[in-house]
Amino acid sequence: MIHNQTMIEQRPAPSSSVGAVAWLRTNLFNGPINTIFTLIGLYILYLLVVPTVQWAFINADWVGTTRDDCSREGACWVFINARLSQFIYGLYPSSEIWRANIVFAMFFSLIGWLAIPRLPFKRWVAIFALIVFPVISFVLLYGGYFDLPKVPTHRWGGLMLTLLLATVGMVGALPIGIVLALGRRSNMPIVKSFCVVFIEFWRGVPLITVLFMASVMLPLFLPSDMSVDRLVRALIGLTLFQSAYMAEVIRGGLQAIPKGQEEAAAALGMTYWKRMGLIILPQALKMMIPGIVNTFISLFKDTTLVMIIGLFDLLGIVQAALADSRWLGFSLEGYVFAAFMFWVFCFSMSRYSQYLERKLHTGHKR
Amino acid sequence: MSVRPNARPVGQKPPFWRDRAKRALIFQCLLIAAVIAFLFYVVGNVQDNLSSRGITTGFGFLSNTAGFGIVQSLIDYSSQSTYGRTFFVGLLNTLLVGGLGVIAATIVGFIVGISRLSPNWLIAKLAAAYIETFRNIPLLLQIFFWYFAVLRTLPSARDSLAFGEAFFLNVRGLYLPQPLFESGFGLIPVTFVIAIIASVALVIWAKRRQEATGKRLPAYWISFALIFGLPLLVMFATGVPITWEMPELRGFNFRGGITVIPEFLALWFALSIYTASFIAEIVRSGIQAISHGQTEAAQALSLPRNLVLRLVVIPQALRVIIPPLTSQYLNLIKNSSLATAIGYPDLVSVFAGTTLNQTGQAIEVIAMTMAVYLTISLLVSMFMNWFNARVALVER
Q1: Residue A74 Cα, gap to closest chain B Cα (Å)
Q2: DSSP string across A262-320
Q3: What are the transmembrane regions (chain A) (predicted)?
Q4: Is the ipTM of this complex over 0.90?
Q5: d(Cα A192, Cα A214) in Å, to the nearest integer?
Q6: CA angle at B330 for the pair A316 and B66, rounded to the nearest 5°
Q7: Which helix (H) or strand (E) is A88 found in, with range?
Q8: What is the pTM of this model?
Q9: pLDDT-based confidence at A364, cuts 50/70/90?
Q10: Does B114 touch chain A (CB under 8 A)?
């Protein structure tokens, strides 16, 4: 039998199941309970967003030089503007700021180069960043060579100090962490228990007691004629503290490598250090990068604690600026600015770590 | 077959540096020697430094009079008390803010974490915004924000924000009514304890009965009613033996009632909000870790939605959630040491701060402070190991 009727023309889907209306229905007004939740959510949003926008943008004052330029109805960003160079460089002499700027520029371009997967020569850039760059930055920041005037560390501060503490703490903690993690997995009982005690000790105490210890007890531990710079003391404390957390991240990565890898390497007659350096660590480190980035984020946030032992990191310098009698009463602006700076750094790093996790995940899917 | 020129004849032992066991032994002996040498060096330096500064070591200072006041104390304390007592005041204050922080962070964290998975787009996005905002801002900054930018800018006592006639909030803190227990109140806690014991017994009995006969009993609802209803009943039967002492404005300040100092409020808010953002992520990933097949299988057995959650998803999710959750609790307690930045009298602020500065006994004080935190960490990780062993998946 041959059908010669024509098919009914396809009709468009009902307007309630496509487009914006359908989206609203399925996502916001799906049943009475959901509708109530949506309304509550909208109300909360209204309560939060409207005053914030009014305070931070609509009623805010942006231009000027003194507090009299602020109408006090909204935020007074003049305060941030006037203090911006302090917030970034601390008390670094203004004639020498170009030195800090060079270090900043090199730092961000190196990080960018290492973070973007497409760029070539990763290995050489990494070696440069780990060996040559610290020397250049020290010479530039501290001075004393090539006719550069010396800038003592107590004048360093602001965002510069925050980045410095976090980066040095991290780079210093990585090798110690690798050694501790390998030690914790070792077959030698004394090495193993030593590493376990070391890791658990640092992980069990708050960072602030570590910093107190570094600032109060370290001078007692050293010969009396040897004095250590306050910044260096904080760095030692941060690095040791961080290395314990790093060791745990690395141990997690090491545990994820199947035992067959090490056995196969051993069967080829490789020594312990060859097995670790050529077979296990390259695979494990790749898987650890997200974890390492996450510990870096927490270290970055934890650097704010150094203000308690008297260093002026970004938060410390903001806090100090708030006590200035010419600018009393702008604590909200100061904190919002500092929070925004920290948030931008931490949020972009956490996004990067999530991106890496997705990217690295593919190789280990079974 | 060629023989390698330096191959060992059969039966000869390898040189000791090729013998793994001997090498390990030598290496470990060297490590111990290095550690001991380091300790000797440090201890020698410490003795030199202390004697040159005229500080005597030992814990004798703990029985000296402290001579400074502390704004909040859960035990009797005055400036005539000893340094040893400052230790306990600080410890209790740390535990107070830590305990209340854990409770608040858990509640907020679970609500936000579950909202993050809500089918409602707006609620899910709000929860995500909460998490991404608060976990990417340093805790110390949040503490400062609550303390200096919010609580320090509140009106003075005369213009306090009043919530009803009982709660007052001003720059000096939060004033709450204080319950005063009259005679006969002792019965209520006793019934409370009895109700808890009875409900535990009931749950065990109901479970046995269900396993034996298949009959279900709403044991959780019954015990809920028991735990809250019984004490309430006793309270009304004994004629409500509680009176409330209301805070009252006298002159420039409030008298009576409970005063919650602003340092405590700032620290508590910041700790709870910050930690809750991490707990929310843990809860979300814990629930998402349960494969969707589990939910589908339970629905295929025609279990109602609340039972799918209660009997299938949550018990499995808790196994994933609880280990990272406890480490967040530990972080919260360790982070409460930031109290020192705003002057809340916790262990670090009172003991490792004021007491250390007054006595100069840096080593003893820091060691005692660290020992407290280490003990807490150790206890919690022991609990964790016990819990992990208990809930570990029994695999074939």
Answers
A1: 14
A2: HHHHHHTT--HHHIIIIIIHHHHHHHHHHHHHHHHHHHHHHGGGGGGGT--BHHHHHHH
A3: 35-58, 97-116, 123-145, 157-182, 194-222, 276-297, 304-322, 334-352
A4: no
A5: 26
A6: 65
A7: helix A77-89
A8: 0.85
A9: very low
A10: no
